[in-house]
């Protein structure tokens, strides 16, 4: 009676645990995700530039070839690919948890029972029985035990805990794939930006060299005037110093070009070497750059999609942590040959099998489970905040790039007019200086001003390309 009462109490405890668990497994209410605006500021509903494939978006054949090389060789992409493979193994492990485990086993051992124990007396007395033959007689005093066969264990997923863990692993895999897409978009944008920076450096180098030629001409002119008594040594020194300063800029610019080429080669996954590139005159910018609707950005931006899959994975893990409080149904079994004599191990009479099933539920000291539940709840909220931050970051980047592109176009118009005026001023100052109507200081000022303005115009043009590339990346373009 006592045995039946114990079993009854255990079953009752398991039933009560199951009832309590039904409350635990109710859907977990999360706070609402951030509500995104319907349109970008200053934009009409249209198809954004992110829908354009990168090979069509970038018109420069040299740049397209560089990007294609980077997508094959970049080490960050290869690292991301291995992370995807690691996440894929988690799915395999979660799938395996749903199936019974079966292992082949060959074991051997033995034990010597005490003479004054129940087992020791029983084994000793058994050998005097008339019901056993020589093969069944127990070895004494050391009792061997040999087993060859199969053992199995299986947790039946009656509450869906294991399926929930599998779902979490699957969402983790999707998140790692989106992380790789984010690396691709970032890599394409970084290569394109480095390429246009390199082209801008080439343009600045050409401007500096052109101004060196102008300044050398001015130095030669003032030296001739000095010999004719129309200028003094101070003018020669001032113009020569300006020439030396510009020549030093040329050397500095050469170093910047080398550093920019090496940076680009690193992204391409290769050792330093010259970069084949076009000129700034061969580059074109679209007249308009539409961002499209925010909903498209939310679907296309890999970092937002990654945050969303992480959010779903954490939600599933939170549910699995709650389901861990419910009773688990486990079945264990074995089938094989078992004997205390090695020569009889494979005898048909040594065949043995066993199957045990039972429910087990945590009743006391559930702190570890509660800690796991609290951890998953915190991780789920963290994932929610990360998702909201990714959405805010996306809108910030798109808005900044749109305004930067618009304002850089305006600045470019003013800078172009400024350069045209200052170039004409250099010609005028040179003519007036030759005829004695302008001083060498006016020539120096005009030449310095045009150099600074031309370099500034090049920087503005470069920023236009960089703003367009950043807009393309921030909208989620380039990862197809």
Automatic annotation (TrEMBL):
GO terms for molecular function: efflux transmembrane transporter activity. It is found in: Cell membrane. One of its GO terms (cellular component) is plasma membrane. It holds the Pfam family OEP. PROSITE patterns: PROKAR_LIPOPROTEIN. Residues 1-20 form the signal peptide. Keywords: Lipoprotein, Membrane, Palmitate, Signal, Transmembrane, Transmembrane beta strand. It is a lipid-anchor. PANTHER family: OUTER MEMBRANE CATION EFFLUX PROTEIN, OUTER MEMBRANE PROTEIN-RELATED. Belongs to the outer membrane factor (OMF) (TC 1.B.17) family. This is Efflux transporter, outer membrane factor (OMF) lipoprotein, NodT family.
